[in-house]
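Problem: given the chain below (1031 residues), write out its structure.
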Amino acid sequence: MARADRGEVGSEFVVAPSTPKLTVKILEYTGLDTSRVKASYRKVADAIARNDFRAAQVKKLVNLSHGRFYRARLDDADRLLFSLVRHGDEVCALMLEVIANHDYDKSRFLRGAAIDESRILDIDADEAIGEALPVRYLHPERTAIHLLDKPISFDDTQEAIYRQPAPLIVVGSAGSGKTALTLEKLKHAEGEVLYVTHSSYLAQSARDLYYANGFEHSGQEAVFLSYREFVESIRVPPGREASWRDFAGWFGRMRQTFREFDGHQVFEEIRGVLAAGAGGVLSRADYLALGVRQSIFPVDLRDRLYDLFEKYRGWLAEAKLYDLNLVAQDWQALAAPRYDFVVVDEVQDITAVQLALVLGTLKRPGHFLLCGDSNQIVHPNFFSWSQVKSLFWKDPKLAERQELRVLTANFRNGLEATRVANQLLKIKHRRFGSIDRESNFLVQAVGGEAGQVALIPDKDASKRELDQKIRQSTQFAVLVMRDEDKAEARKHFATPLLFSIHEAKGLEYDNIILYRFISDHRAEFSEIVDGVEPADLAADTLDYRRAKDKTDKSLEVYKFFVNALYVALTRAIRNVYVIESDTGHALFGLLEMNLGQVKVEARQSSLEDWQKEARKLELQGKQEQAETIRRTILKQTPVPWPVFGEAKVVELLVKVFREQVPGAKMKQQLYEYATCHDEAQLAEWLVAEAKFEQATNFAQQRANFARKTYLPYFANHFKDILKQCQQYGVEHRLPMNLTPLMAAAAAGNVALVEALLERGADRDAVDHYGYNALHWALREGFRDAKFARGPLAALYEHLAPVSIDVNTGERLVRLDRHLAEYFLFQTLWVLFKSRFTHRQRRTNGAFEAQAILDAWQHLPANIVRPERNRRQHLSGVLARNEIDRDYAYNRALFRRVSQGWYQLNPKLAIRRRQGDEEMWTPVCAALNLPLISEFSRLNDWEWPEPIPKVIDRLLLEAGLPGWRVPIAAERAVARVQALEEKRLAEVRALQAQREAERAAAAQRPIPWGSPQAKRLEIERIRREIEARKKG
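Solution.
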């Protein structure tokens, strides 16, 4: 009879060979420092490598809000933090950090999580290995790993570029990892450094990647900006940036006069030629003198085009709009040297004058890194790498040092999508020649799935079938060439994920459907493939060659179409479905795309998936698609309860206090509002003016009553809350005007916060006092030590916005989350209201360092680092950011009102988003000081300047209407005024009586010999003597 570990052969038992034990490859994070524990580290690493987790005393850290981390024991005091990753069949331990003295709360990876060593459980090696996270690429030999939001292993080309000194230009295709590479290089720069790119979403995403896993560099101050934000950091232009839609609306009104022009081509000529040069806006004469290939239009049309350009500039001024090229021309004189190092990502999307403006802020020429891909140009410009390099050739030393490197690997797209994209690049190269030497490369897919690129005839039955499959899936997006093409596509596809190619830039989806890209632009694509034969595309490389005809400007005319198709193909992670009526077009033959049986598999996405997709698109500025998801997929309905925002609260105040409507219901509603928003003065007025006696117990009832307004949010089971979010939207308002995320934050419910963020909750949404979810959590943490030491650390990691944009009067200042100024500003934001509604040491509406330190008393180290939580450091941060303080990085955030007392600078404005629009809101308006004044204290008269006068001055300085008597206090103030008027009237009557008595006395004769008669006689004699002396 055979046993489990034996096999039977004939009549003999033989021992079966045991399965070799899996070994674990050791990888090391580039920031790992084991110098203090070399011997013990090597011993533990060897144990983990041979899969002996028991010898290494490995345990899994649990109850973390992010990631999977393990710790091994180095010695009595020190621990090794690591994670597990998998590439194919190979499992690796990624060594991250040595944690000294059990101080888990100081770990940059654990982000303040509370770890109790006595409660960490052992974990079996096989179980841990089963949880290893997959990585897409791992170098076969190098074990050094970089970290952004996930582990990154560089291939040989990337590694060589990583070690190359600046100045450096990196050319890379979509999905080549160029952004990750540039961010890793940026980590080594010292001083003030700038990352700038065309898209604000990409800039914020890059910032999130950069600081993921707690990266810090004490000798560096990094700023991540979109190009428009960079311009604003020099000086905020008046008005709003003119978009294509603005231009199209204006051009439509001009068409009668300028019928010979196409709007898209005019837009590209203005943006890419007339206003784009680093040498200034082209004069009419210089424009007419341009070469054939330097303009879209022939010479005989340029004079008329210049007339249109002049009208365009006039329209911008009238409409209060601005063109970023024209602003860049004007701002050149303002661009002072500021940055020690600059990275420009997606450089192909900005023009020469814009690039010159960015590089004009460098302290030392050559300390820059540029990266991009000229094959992805869909924004109007005449970009080429040679044009970029010409900016530097004027400096021979700089030109000599300049390096340009090419990344050809693609880590994003499927193999078939990459093949078709390469075929398109070959066609472009064969038809138009090389744009420049640097764009002369094909892409190599690495690690992707095969995928498919399928050609589907444009037939109603096919479109109906496809629409039924994809309309409920977040994994499929439909792309069209231009904005005006979307209307036709909507007739056949119900998915909200419908984008023009401009909108699609920077997006990626598993499956992409291209709708009539070629059929609706048949003539342009016929011209693109004219003269190209299949044999011309046989080579696997592109050789540098110029176009045969130097007068041929076809590339300038047709570049948009071929680049748009390339960008569309490279949005797909797996599959591309191309729907065309002209399936016999020559382009498809050259791309080796044939009609055939197409199988489309689509999984219906959950409402949670759609909520997340809507929020993601909103962050990317795709408001149209986000709103369509909410309207057509989520089908959210308004809440059935009243919401006590500002308008509703003011309405209640009028009814209860001014009109004195009878009944207790509205008084009770105001009392609940007072407890939720901590309005002690309102409670006093409810007692004194509305005779609502329950409010007498406000101090005792406030905390419990406030919890009642969002009581379900404290529970561990919150299915009903998530169901409400599906019904009313994840941003619906609770009765006290909180979003679910704000309520979960105030309740300290980390699990619910995570669930809401997973569903796309907006951490930037604010209530009517300008409080977001973080502010609600901080408000609790500032007054409750248990809350501060408990859930606040995790809440902060989830809820703190990455930055705050403020306008100091003429320029944008970005407060990044890692700066000391950031959390100080957030603190003053939370405490601002209490300066006026609660009794303070002084009534000046200002803060002293001690009040801030008191609020910070129990905060964890991931929110306020210990060295920052000291009076000396805090006073220094306040002082160096005073208005008019002479300090290189002064952000002018505070005004000192007296020694040691500071206010927020009343001239500050903060950026707020409303739908598609962004606007600057004065800080006193964002904090709603007018509403705060409705509940402010009136009777702290012991100080020279009472609270109403302070509020009045702040409001007027912010350009807002001045202070007025609070509605709830109108009758009380009227009574006081009436009493004062009565007292004044009595005083005036008494004075009048005394005056009358004196006047009557003056009329009576003075008896001779009386004291008064004697005084008058003496005075008369004195005057006579003085008169004689004079003459």
